[in-house]
Structure formats: C-alpha cells, structure tokens
Design brief:
With 84 residues, the chain is α+β, with helices and mostly antiparallel strands. It has one domain: Orthogonal Bundle (Multidrug-efflux Transporter Regulator, Chain: A, Domain 2), CATH 1.10.1660. It is 42% helix and 35% strand. The chain has a four-stranded antiparallel β-sheet. Helix 1 packs across helix 2.
C-alpha cells in the first residue's frame, strides 16, 4: 500500500511557495511476517514486547512504515555483528 501526498500550491506562514511531496510505503502484518520469515503471531508478539516498532492504525487497518521495518533489520544486523 502506498500513500502519496502532494501539496502543489501550499505556502508557509511568510507567504512563500512550498512544494511538499512525500511518499511512504506501508506494510501489512502478513508482509512483515513474510519479510521476517516468521508467523503473524510472532510479529504481534514482537510488537507487544517492544522488539518491533509500533504499527499505525488507519480505521480498521493496521500498517507498519516500511522505513521503520527496514531500520529494525539494520539494527538487528548491527547487533548480531557486535555480538561476535
């Protein structure tokens, strides 16, 4: 799922034109589980114990920022290298 926001004619408080374009990818619990090679239950358990970042809620949908999951993998890899 990809959300994109494009504010073309926005202005800041000083009246200067601002063009803000942001795109962030969101992942479902099934996608996170697949990336981690674990079950959906394990994803929820790791969220509960603070190992994984907290997801975002959009109505009845729950999603994780792909950038935060990526950072989780980077941090986990760094920690495993440090333990050697």
């Amino acid at each position: 799922m990809k959300f994109s926001f494009n504010l073309v004619n926005a202005t800041d408080r000083g009246g200067n034109a601002v063009n803000i374009e942001t795109t962030e990818r969101y992942l479902t619990v099934a996608m996170v589980a697949e990336l981690m090679s674990c079950s959906v239950s394990t994803v929820w358990r790791r969220c509960a114990d603070g190992t994984l970042p907290r997801p975002r809620k959009f109505g009845h949908s729950t999603r994780w920022l792909a950038s935060e999951i990526n950072q989780y993998f980077v941090t986990a890899k760094t920690q495993s290298i440090d333990r050697r």
